[in-house]
Amino acid sequence: MKPSFFDLTYDELKLLLTEKGLSPFGATQMFDWVYRKWVHNPQEWSNVSKAAREFFTENYDFSLLKVVWNGLSKDGTRKFLVKMNDGQTVETVAIPARERLTLCVSSQVGCAVGCTFCHTATQGLKRHLKASEVVGQYLTIQKWLHENVSMDEKLTNIVYMGQGEPLHNYENMKKATLIFMAERGLALGQRRITLSTSGLVPAIEKLAIDFPPVNIALSLHSARNDVRTELMPINKVYDLERLFNAIKKIPLKAHRRITYEYLLADGINDTMEDVVALEKLLNPKESKINLIPFNEFPGSKYKRPSEEKIMWFLDQMIKRGFTCTIRTTKGSDILAACGQLKSEFEKLNLWDKDNKPKVIPSIASSVRQNLTP
Ligand code: SF4
Q1: Residue 338 designated active-site
Q2: pLDDT tens digits for 171-186?
Q3: 110 C-alpha vs ligand 1 centroid, how far in Å?
């Protein structure tokens, strides 16, 4: 199989052109054709040399991912199941908020981290995504939105918060980020990209050295080691002390505040003891806390706290000088808990003999009734 053009960063493309005896200046035109003009057939790159057009036609693949299912939530969130060349699928979600349309991309098929609240964890790690498959989620969904919704629908932000632990797939995520940010291409600013991690300490230590300076979000979920270990077994290896030693090395000038994601689970991490531990652990000037009331899924072991409890927790953090917000659960009516959609398709054997999704039966009466025409 040919390598994907979407695996090439701008610098790699220049290097490749030089190695092949072609002009490296062609990289600028090529990124312009591919990422700005959406012309994915090299034969149509009119200002590129014939030799370069032939080379890319013969040797590179420009195909996007296949959207095999999509659903629209009442709140405007669109969830997609996309299929890659080897038949594996991942989820990707477009979330509207004010003037933004954020794409939440997956970084792996499944995940090895094993957070006990997460549906993707039940799938285990199947493989890392290539950079082209991460960039491909963006290109595929942008194209789908243009063709199926409106030419005005523009993805403005990216969060690496879909299936997988992005830092477990460090090199490919770094490459995808460089491609997203390339000035000659999609030119997404560093503030429009958020990298989220469960706390893989060796990779966090590398961030400061060679990762583009995008926003960082850390899945904290508890400031108490015992509770965090219960929620996130990774905390056994990289406990809060090791984690925060690594976080201190991230240059905040570039990354500004770090966002701490805090899943609120009833009776688990929503007590006064948790508030006090958070206050002790975080510096209000350098932190933003994002409370995420648990999104229950069938078989999940945790429960969502009551609205009063959620508001109480928020109030406690604000009183202590923190910037703290509640992230409303998006798309809960379309199985938006991470990994849930893919599992439901597999469990119910919703693929037909040609590996296409069958007409959706019972998952989803709840899914279908929320689709808009
Ligand atoms: S929450 Fe993220 S890191 Fe944890 S198991 Fe799920 S996908 Fe992996």
Answers
A1: yes
A2: 999 999 999 999 999 9
A3: 8
pLDDT tens digits along 212-236: 999 999 999 999 999 999 999 999 9
Separation between Cα atoms, residue 116 and residue 121, nearest integer Å = 7
Instruction: Give the pocket of ligand 1 (CB within 6 Å).
Output: 111, 113-115, 118, 120-121, 163-165, 198, 338
Q: What structural domains and CATH numbers belong to the chain?
A: 5-59 (1.10.150.530), 66-368 (3.20.20.70)
Ligand 1 atom index nearest CA of 198: 3
Alpha carbon of residue 126 to chain centroid:
17
Query: Ligand 1 center to residue 109 CA distance, Å?
Result: 11
What end-to-end distance do the CA atoms of the chain give, in Å?
37
User: Of all protein residues, whose CA lies closest to atom 4 belonging to ligand 1?
Assistant: 115
Q: Which residue is catalytic, options 99, 338, 344, 346? A: 338
- Interval between CA 122 and ligand 1 midpoint (Å): 10
Q: What is the pLDDT of residues 233-281, one digit of tens each?
A: 999 999 999 999 999 888 766 556 899 999 999 999 999 999 999 999 9
Atom number of ligand 1 nearest to Cα 117: 1
Catalytic residue list contains 344: no
> In sequence order, which residues have a C-beta less than 8 Å from that of residue 184 and are 6 or more positions away?
10, 27, 28, 31, 32, 35
Alpha helix segments (H runs only) across the chain: 10-19, 26-31, 50-59, 131-148, 170-181, 201-210, 225-231, 234-237, 240-247, 252-255, 272-281, 307-319, 340-347, 364-368
Question: pTM for this structure?
Answer: 0.88
pLDDT the model gives residue 249 = 85
DSSP three-state, residue 276:
helix
Tell me what the mean pLDDT of segment 108-135 comes to.
93
What separation in Å is there between the alpha carbon of 229 and the centre of ligand 1?
14
